[in-house]
Write a structure and sequence with these properties.
Helix content is about 30%, strand content about 15%. The chain has 5 helices and 9 strands; from the N terminus they run αβαβαβαββββαββ. It has helices at about 1-25, 65-80, 100-115, 140-150, 195-200, and strands at about 50-55, 80-85, 120, 155, 160-165, 170, 180-185, 210, 230. It has a 5-stranded mixed β-sheet with strand order 6-5-7-8-9. A 4-stranded parallel β-sheet has the order 1-2-3-4, with helices on one face. This is Metallophosphoesterase. InterPro entries: Calcineurin-like_PHP (IPR004843), Metallo-depent_PP-like (IPR029052), Metallophosphoesterase_sf (IPR051158).
Amino acid sequence: MKILKRTGIILLALILFVVTWGLIEPYFINTEEEPAEIASLPEGWAGQELAVIGDFQVGMWMDNTWTIERAVDQIIERNPAAVLLTGDHVYHVKKGSEKELNEVLELLQPLADSDIPVMTVMGNHDYSLEKNDDKPDTAYVENMTQRFEEIGIHVLQNEHLVLNLTDNGAVVGEADEESLYIGGIGSSWAGRADAEKTLSGIPDDAPRFMLMHNPEAFQSIQGGLSPVAAAGHTHGGQISIPFIHDFV
C-alpha cells in the first residue's frame, strides 16, 4: 500500500508540474538561431538575418498577446533584414468578425512602422479551417489581406517579391544580381498551395527563401528549387519540457 501511495503522489506531482508548466511556458520567448545555406547568395547577404514568427492565433482562449508584443519589440531591436510571418494570425473566428483582426493589426503595427520589410502567408485558421475538409472563409482572408497591405505588410499568395540591400537595410524592389527572392506559398488546407506558381519568374540560379504555413507544402517544391524554407502550423511542438529539447 505504501508503494501505491508513493506512486500516486509522484504521479500527481508530475501532473501538477506539467499543468503548471503548460500555463507558464508560453510566456517565455525562446530565440532559435538557424544558419541557412542559400545557393548563389550574393556576398552582401552573408550574415544577414531573417526573423520568422507566427501562429499567433489571436482569439483563442489565453491567446497570450502580451508575449506577441514582447516578441515584436525584440525583433525590432534586433533589426533583421526582413520579418517573415508564418500565418494563423487569428483563431477560428465568427464569420465577418473584425475584433480579432483589429487586435492583430494593433500588435503588428510597430513592425509595420519600422523600416524592416514584413511579409506573411495565410494559414488554415485565417480561413477558419480547423479541419482540412472544412469550407474556407475566403472573404475573411481577402479582408485581412487588404488590411495588412494597407499598413505595409506584404501578403504572399503563391507569389514572390525581391529584397535588395541598401545602406539602411533591406527594401522591397526590382530584381538585380544582388537580390534575394522571398516566395510565399498559399494555404494547403484551403487548397491554395501552388509552389510552381510561387517560383514562376525566379531565375533558376537566383537565391531564394520560401515561406509557407503548412510544412507539407515544401514537398510540392520540385527538383530542390528551394532547399531553404520556413513554415509554421506545428507550433514548434505542443509540449516543451524543461531541459529536454525537441520533445513533442
